[in-house]
Every structure is written in structure tokens, then in C-alpha cells.
């Protein structure tokens, strides 16, 4: 098993090198200019107003929040799915209880309007 | 096998996959996209560079190589530069667990991990971080808005995709992709799991930010989304990430639902390629046929339609596999 | 071969880093990040004890799984609190959040 | 030095170095992004500890979900605008001393205790074994999790939403 992941590590390291290779090439051959307007932030051609780093709508947070909760739910289902087949009806009822409780959460978010983009 | 031979094998496999994806998915994929869009819109598409325009993308790449490499003055240089590596690398890490075919020596796969499907979900999730880095690092309003939209969209569609993956894993009783393909020897999963297949396909389209889910780089409102500020080869690397991810999603759909390399008469690798390109054609066809969603429709569709349907599908499948099977 | 002690020392260092962030940072998001580092250190310990002290069963890994679950819940609720504090007090710096009621 | 030891030291260095960036960087976004390599280092350690399933969910939850959540909150509150604000309070030296004392204490305990060495081997396929235990001895963990998740979902939505 460690060998499997050794392969994955090699893939990641060599892969990062291969992605970086074109960057090295352009660093060597690409032209450079010192024309100051080129380094301005693009805002459809007019001078940029203020920073882009500012506040955004809280809606984005609500969605990522519900996402995190459901993502955690999903990690519990992976081992369940692998083992369920051999365990009989108990596995099914267990899943049913688990999902019903979580569906309550989804219904709550829905009713409270957390899934609306207003 | 001695360790240096293993290392050599791993390095060679990596280089093969990376250059394969770069040439077949990115270069040829871009050309295919342009040809198909031209065909759908009754145009001709690229025609002058090489026979039938076959070398068009190569010419484009050579052009991009000579372009200036601009880092905006107000950008965050470290994050701006590292996002270029993270996005394509995370997309290409998916290919570790995709079985391309089979030979007498065993399946043709970089490494058949025990947690294959989970690994696939995890590496696709890493792309989101890269996109947020690109959007924030550019310090550009279009880029940041594109990055945030993209992240909200990708995380929303990760849930139905994960549920579809779990349904398939339940059928095979394993997370290993090779076992899942072998479990489809009698019947492809698309027959028994058409709903999961559709959910996976829709979620995959959203994960790779393609129309009708391309709000992220809605060119009429957000220029090029999170990679607006990237020039030359860096732009090309984002394209590599995007097309690499699209091919990875299609390849995963083939593996999970269309029986992977399985098929009569023709060699397995060829079957895999045929199925892969059939799905790629579907992706492109959809892109050039449908208009774009609004963001509220987009997120609502995932949470109010796909996730309830996927949950129901999982329960029904579990009933048939676990209870009725006995 | 790394032994149990190697892992314990590593996780002690990681835990100390997280603790340092928690006691010295002003930004509440950075404090939450420190807590995540500490939880990670605890998880490394759990997995290491599982592997070296009780390899016959998986209780350590299941504990780590619970910790990851709670870490995700903690992040979701904690960051929601940060947002709520920012909305009513317009700051996320913990030493400026000094009123109990608004 | 065996491959496993080499991997351990590389991963430990990765985890601690990026952890140091998380803790010390004056730029909050840099801290958040540095969390990712730190989590990936821990992922590698899980692999070395034969906890494959934990490694998978470490990437999925920590690197893919919690980091995204943290980045979102940074962008929803201060973005990069607060970068010039002081990030450290006045307890820097004391905090460093406390953290160092904690590290010394923990390392002393770790190196001076005779830890029990258990017999047996970990199951080769940990995901299936964890799944079986969810259907047996740990059934309450499985069901309890759903309640914890439900409660935190409701709580977080109530806190994060604007009061009407």
C-alpha cells in the first residue's frame, strides 16, 4: 500500500515540475517591457477604482457552510457503501436513519431561505 | 523490483500521462471544441494551419510562448504565481486512478488505489483552492468575483457528484476503480443507474465550469473570470487545467457508468477512447446549444433538485442492493 | 523507521504552533486556523497510537474521524460567529470585541 | 535511511514549515493558503501510518472544504483590506514562551514514557473495516454524527443569517 502512495507522490512531484517547466521557458525567452500601464489592473480599460480586495455577499458563506456539513456527511457514506453489501438489512435501516436526520437539515435550510440567492 | 526501477516506472508513467493530457486533452481538445462549435454554428472553424487546421493549437501555443509574462502591479505575487501550478496539477492528479484499458499483464492504470473514487473526489476538490487563489491573487474585481462564483458553484456540485460516486461504490462494494469496472462485466452501470449517471454528468459539467454552468467565466460580464489577469503561457496552463479536468471527468464517467475499457471485438484501449470521445462530444454539444444559467438558478438547481434526487436514488439503490438482494 | 515517539514529537511541535497562534493572534479567523492546526496534531497522535499501540483494531482512526467531523462543525459555527461579530461590531479582531451585549 | 524514514522527515518538514507560515505570516490570506500544504503533509503522515481512508478525507474535508470556508470568510469580512492592521497582540513573547513550554512538556512526556506496543496488524483495507465497524460496534458514532451535523448546520445558519 505504501508503494501505491509512493507512486502518487512521484506523480505529484514530477507533475509539479512538468507544470513549472513552461513557466521556466517563458521566464527565459519571453520579452519584457517596462511600459507602466501594462502592469495596471484590468478594468475594461479605465483606471481601476479602489482595491478588488473588499467585502462580498454573505450568501457565498451560507452555501459553503451547508456544503461543509454535507461533505462531512458524505465521508461517512464511503465506508458504509463499501461494507453495506455483506451486512444485510441493518445497513439499510442505518442509512435511512442517517439520511432522514440530514434531510431535516436540508429542509430546514430550504425553509429558512438559506438556499435562496437574494 | 528494485526501488530505482519502480522510481523509473513511476517517473515515466507520470511524464507519459502529463504529455498525453497536454497534447490529447488540451491541444487536440481545444481544436475539437473549435471545430464542433463551428459545425454547430454552420461555420468552417480553423482551416489554414496544417491540413484542415489540425496544427492550429500548436501554432497558438507557440504564439503564447512568446508572449510577455505580466504580473499586475497590485497583485499578490506569491499567490498569483502559485495558483498557476495548483490548478493544472490538481486537475491532472485525477488521472492517477483512471484505468485506460487492460493488457495481459493487468489493467492499464497509473496506480489502482484502494480508495480510488474517494481520491478522485478529493483531488477535484483541490481545484477550488487553486481557483480562489487565482481570483484573490490577481486583485482584480472580475477575477475575484469569478473566483468566488466558481468556488460557490464547484462546492455546491461536489455534493451530488459525491453521492453519485457513493451509489456506484455501493454497487461494486469497493472504491477501487478497477474493481468498479470489473463489476460491470455483465451489465454497465448506466443501465442500472441511469439517474446517477445523469447526476454525475450534470455535476461534472458544473465542476469544469462549462456552459450552461459557465457563470464563472461569463465572458460578457466577467471578461475571463478568475484568469482575467493571466497572460501568455500562464493562461495556457489554466486552459490545460480546464481541459484536463474535463477529460478526467469524462474518463471517470466512462469508468463508473459505461463499463470502462469493456467492449466486444475491438481492443480495450480503443473502446475506452471511443466512449471518452462520445462523452466529450456530449459536453461540447451541450456547451454550444444551451444558454447560461443565472447564479440563483444554478445553485438552487444543485441544492433543490440534484441533491434530493441523488439522496433518493441512493436510498432506492441501497434498498435493492442490501435488502431485496437477499 | 519512524517510531511512535517520532510522531508524538512532531505532533507536539505542531500543537505548540497552533497554541502560539491562538494566544498571540488578534484576528479571530487566524485563531480558528491555529485551532485547526492543534486538531490536526491531535489526529496525528490518534492515528499513530492506533498504528503502534493497538494495531489490532481501528478505534484510533475512528476517533480521528470524529475529530475531523467536529473540526468541520467547529469551523462552520466558529466562522459564522466571526461573520455575526463582524456584522454587529465591524471588527474581527478579538481584542476589539469587548462588549458582551450590543 | 529507509524510504519510510525519508518520507517521514520530508512530510514533517513540510507540515511544520507551512504551519510556521500559517502562524507567523502578517497576511491573513497567506496564512490561510499555507494551511493547504500543512494539511497535505498531515495527509502524507496518515498514509505512512496506514490510515488510507483518513488520508482521503483529510484532503477532502480539510484542504477542500475547511480551507475554502476560511478563505470565504476572509473575503467576506476584511478581504485584503485589513492587511495593514496589526495581526499580533501584545502577548507575543509570553505566548512564545507558553507555546515553547508546552512543546517541551509534551516532548518530554513523549520521549520518557514507555508506550505499550500492541500486537497484531492493521487491516489492509481500512475503509471496509471502518465501514464494518460502523455497522457493528460503532453504530452510535455513525448515527450520532448525523445529529451533530444537523445541530451545527441549524446553529450556523441561525448565527450567520441577518436578523430580520
Fold and architecture overview:
The complex is a heterotetramer of chains A (118), B (326), C (102) and D (164). Helices cover 65% and strands 0% of the residues of chain A. Chain A has 118 residues and is mostly helical. Chain A has one domain (2-111): NADH:ubiquinone/plastoquinone oxidoreductase, chain 3 (Methane Monooxygenase Hydroxylase, Chain G, domain 1), CATH 1.20.58. Chain A is flat, with a radius of gyration of 25 Å. Chain B is an all-alpha fold and 326 residues long. Chain B has one domain (71-323). Chain B has a two-stranded antiparallel ribbon. The relative contact order of chain B is 0.14. Chain D is mainly alpha-helical and 164 residues long. Helix content of chain D is 74%, strand content 0%. Chain D contains six helices and no strands. The chains are: A mainly alpha (118), B mainly alpha (326), C mainly alpha (102), D mainly alpha (164).
What spatial form of chain B do the alpha-carbon principal axes imply? globular
Q: What is the C-alpha radius of gyration of chain C, as a whole number of Å?
A: 17 Å
Strand order of the main beta sheet of chain B, please?
1-2
Strand content of chain B: under 5%
Count of domain modules of chain C: 1
The biggest sheet of chain B amounts to: 2 strands, antiparallel
User: What oligomeric state do these chains adopt?
Assistant: heterotetramer
Gross morphology of chain C: elongated
* Proportion of beta-strand residues of chain C: under 5%
CATH architecture field of chain C? Orthogonal Bundle
Please tell me the overall pLDDT of chain C. Answer: 87
Helix content of chain C: over 70%
- From the helix content, strand content and strand pairing of chain C, which structural class follows? mainly alpha
Q: Largest chain interface and its two residue counts?
A: A-B, 69 and 87 residues
End-to-end gap of chain C: 57 Å
Radius of gyration of chain B: 20 Å
| Separation, N- and C-terminal Cα atoms of chain B | 44 Å
- Regions with little confidence, pLDDT below 50 for 5+ residues of chain C: none
Elements of chain B, N to C (H/E): HHHEEHHHHHHHHH
